[in-house]
Structure formats: structure tokens, C-alpha cells
Structure prediction request, 692 residues.
Amino acid sequence: MFTRYTLVLLAILFCLTTCLLDAQQNKIKSTYNVDPNLEITFATPPTVVTNPATVIDAFSAVLNGTVNPQGKSTNARFQWGLTSSYGNLTTSVNVGSGTTNNVLSTPITSLIPNTQYHFRITATNTDGTSNGIDRVFTTASVPAPLVRSIPASDVGQTFATLNGEANPNGYSTDAWFTWGSDSLINVTSPISLGSDTFFVPFTSTLTDLLPNTTYQYFANAQSVGGLSTTATTMIFTTLSSPNEYMPDGNTVGLYHLNDAKEFIQDYSGQENHGVIDTVTGTSSPAIIPGKYGNARDFSYFTQEITIFPNSSLEFTDEDFTLEAWVNPEFYGLGDVVIIGHGSLTDTSLAFQLRINPFYQLEVNLSGDGTLQSQTVTLSAPVVTNTWQHVAAVIDMVNFEVRIFHNGVLQPTSSSGAFPTILHISPTPITIGSFAGVAKTFAGLSHCSIDEVRISNIGRQPFEFKIPGTISGVKFWDRVNPGYYDESAGDTVLGNWGIVLQQLPSNDEISYTFEPETTYTDQFGFYTFTELNYGTYMISEILQEGWLQTYPAGDGKHTLTIYDGTAQTNINFGNVDGYEFDGPDGGSWSDPTNWEGNQTPGNNTPVYFDSVEIVFDVPFDDSIGALRIGPGGTLTFDITATSTLGSGGGSLYIEDKLTIDNDATINGGFGNVWLYCDGDFQNQGTFNAGNSK
Prediction:
């Protein structure tokens, strides 16, 4: 590029060269006169220097340079960007028209951490533009968030809560989970954790999961500092049965034993997980159908479960409960530690719940590692080839042990001194350890174990999952409505369908239980057995030509089964009769008020309650029988007008007339009569009028 200064020099050189050549060629001495007023000017654009950037952090920096205006008014600024093509400009600044260097410093913001940037200074005056050299700087790094995966909680049959925590390290952070069954292909919605400098918990609840299915997941967190994921993948298995235990605030160990994995998950949320101890046997305990879902089957040859507990399973001077469902099959003698912490053969004992060789339940305790206290049931309640619930409540306040079999407190005998403080055993807690005389019959004896629960309180029997029953009678409610009284003439109804529907609890809100139907026997009796703790709704399948009298309202019983309870006399009463569907004070003669849109005719039994019916038929009418239940009223109104005309007809009842408690008949007058050819039973109010 030529400047004005360059062009002036070229012009002078051209003139001198021309003169010399001309003189040489013509051998003539020539004299040239130069105009003394001639002014030669030089072009002077600004001079610039790009200086190193300063005050560099993760998101900003200060760009520096110097500018010499060269005596002309000059504007300067910086070009900057991710490459030497820049793409960004700072605001132009006028640096004056002096002839000395001016320092220009301009901050830039909203930069990306740990990123290299290019920049240069550029300045312009009337003589042109000057650009400095390209310089680079790198923004400071931002620490990525820290993130940890935490075991799942509230694991049900079709739902689970994933848990994690992350430390944003001072920068706005989002967190989420990656999860799946066979492959990790699903992600939860991001959760904003803010910009704290400490660990913040976050959760995500999964629904519509498959029962008895193993899932895995890990936590993620991301900020401007980068993406962090946990190296450890967490695993959980959904319940196979909706009746398996759910943890509460006092559950410190919960093991469903549903799958064949070596990792044994603690569903209590206390992270007292276990493993199959491959040293203690030659094979892993088999998976078999359990009391609820699946179970593990243990023998002398199988590997026991070992749990390395944290402090939540160290019971020094507080009450605690050990419980499980067991199904033993012993050959001759049995000897299995259901739940134990330490051994009787060394100085590691803290506690044990076991089935001893004589089918008794036994609890062993120690304060120093050796056996100090032993409590044994007086009888041998344990039976073979049957699922049964066993539990031991260790009462460290009253210094006693209470042993339960299927929710029933067992008489016991105790020996030794009850320890005031339990030993903290250095060994793991075990489940399913065979020992002692069981070795003699090791090839035959075995014991299946399911639903192991350890609690940091003394549980009450109603808290154990002992199945209950619901039973009742289906009867022909001939006499007192709602009361089964065989001596008064009520009879039973066989082969009627009764439906049981378990209602979901808050923990099972996304689960729908399948209804169960049974039928009354020849004595009108029905029963539902093996009912777990929960709320149930019981209803009948109404047959044609019958009306339900009990229970009142929606005709359904709703009740709660507590462990091991038997709910009896959950009865259903019915009468055969035509149903009135009309409003209170409705017309007898209006067919739309009756079932099937047809008024009752000859031989038709009629039953109604809780409403008043106005008999407004203008001609005589006949029915098979009439029963008015509680709250019902039949009023004969000769002045009433219907679509058939004015009232005035009589009512003939061919069989029985029954007026229940709190029921009323207001009889007819004039030519209106009420005739009853059968039995008449009155427990309510009968204003006779013309009656016969």
C-alpha cells in the first residue's frame, strides 16, 4: 500500500533521474530552479502495540495496548474472539491527537472458562488504520461440580425414588439421573441446585416400573465448570409383591432377597448393604418362591449373607427388633442362625436369632463377645415346610427378650445375666448361617428366608406382617333390616358372589390390586384368608330381582386388616323386590320412577327405603309383597294427579306387608283402601286409614 509520504519521495526521485538522464544524453549543462514555497508532507497513521491481557479470570479479562496518535485525532479499540478472525469489537475510544503513547485498557466479560481467546488493538486517524499484533490468553478454569449417587429409597413394586447429592462449587448447577434396566438409556428431568458450595441432595421418583426387575442408575451434575458423573452405578430391584415390607423411620435393615445377585440391597435407606459370602459355602443360596415375592434358600453348603454394618446397626443400650419369614425343612435336627452378629464359638458375639436343633426359637446376647444371656421358647413352635413369621424384641430398658411366632408372644425361659450394654462386634452381621448339629444332616436340612427386617425400636405384634381374614354371611333380610337374625326368620343365601378389593396405600398409590371373588357356601358363609396388612373394600355381586338392605349407603364394607387379625360378621343383607328409582315424593304411577321404566305388577315384591312414594294410581293395583325400609314412607293421596288421572285406586298386597323401624304408611280414605292378604309386620308407624 502506497502512502502520501511514499509518493512524494518517488516524485523527487523521478525528477532527479530525468534531469540526469537528459543532461547526459544532450551533453548540456542545465540548471533547474526549485520553488522555495514547495511543501513536502508525510502520511502518519497512528502507531499501536498490543500488550498482554491482564486480570484474567474464568469469565472476564482486561485487554491492553498503547496508541500514538501521531498528532492526529485517533480512535482506538480491540478486536477479540475465539480465533484470529476475532468477530467481536470493543467500544471505540478517542485517544486524542498527541504524539506520545497512550495506554488503552478495556475489560471484556461473559467469557467461557478454560478457553483460549485472541485479541489485538486497532487504531484509526485521517492518515489510515494501524493494527497491532495478535495475542492470546486463556481464561481460568472453573471447578466442575462434585456429585455422588445414593442408594434408591421407597422402592415398591412399580416405583422407586433415586437419590443423589451434588456440590455446585459456587456455580449454577443442574443435576439429573441416567437410569435403565438392561441399558442406561433413560434420563430424568434436570433439577436446578443453585450455586452453593456444599452438597445439596436431589431426588427423582420413577413410576411405571416393572415388578421384580433390577434397575441401575447414576447421578450427573453440570455447570460452567463441566459435566460430572459418578463412577459408581447404583442398583435396586423392584418388589415382586405389593405386600413386601416398606421401610419406615425405624427400619435400619431391610432385605427382600428377591434376586440371585451377589449384592444384597438394604431397602431401609441406611445403606447397610450385604453380599453373598463366597468363602462360607460352595454355592449361592437358591432363589425360590417366598412368602412375598422370592426368597433365598440356605443350607450348610450354601454361602451365607454377610452385612458390614454402619453405626445404625450397633445396638448398645437401645431396644431393637429382629424378624423374618422362614420356611425350614430339617432332617432330624436343625440349627440355623436367621440373623446374627458374631459367633458363639469365639469372642465376637453381640446378638443372634436362631432356630435351635429342637425347633425352638432362641436369642443369644453378649456384652463382652461371649455368651452371657440366652432366651429360649418353652415349646417348639417352628414347623417344617411352612412359611412362618419369627421375631425377637430385645428390650434393653427392661432387660428382657420377647419372642413371637406368627405374631403370638411365646412363653420363654432365660438363663445367664442380661447385658446392660451389647458388645460391638467386629464381625459382619450374617443371614442364613448353618452351624452346630445341622452339619450332621447338612445334605438334607435347609431353611428358606424372606423379608428380613431389623428395627431400632421394640416392634409391637400388630406391626408384623401376619396374614388376617375377613368373613361373613350373605342373608335374606326378612325381619330387622341390616341384622342377621336366624331365629327371627332370616335365611342364608348360597352361591352369591362376594368381591374383595385391596386399596392402595400412599406408598402404593400407583399400584392397582387385582380384585378377588369368592362365593357363599350352602350356609351363606364366605371367607377371605391370607390377607396382609392393608385396607380392603368388600362388596357383593347383586343378583337380579334383589335389593340390598345391608350395609347401608354404597352397599360396601371398607375396613383395615392389621397383622394376624380376623374380621368377622362382615355381612350382606338382601330382600327380593322391585326397586324405586324416583325422587323423594315421587309418583307410584310414573313408570320412569321404577327399575326398567315399568311400574310393579302382580306377584312383584316391592322394597324401598329413605324416600316417600305417593300412591296416586286412579284404579286398583296389585303387587306381590311390600316392604318399607328405614326412612321410607308410602302415602295414599286421593287428591294427587298423575299422568293416568286423579288418585283414588286401592292397593292390594297378595303376600306379606312389612313396615320396618322408622318407616311409615299413611293409609287411604274414602274409596281408597290398602288390602293385605298375607302376614303383616309393623315396627314403624302405620296410620291405617282404610285398611284391611
About this structure: The longest strand covers residues 116-125.
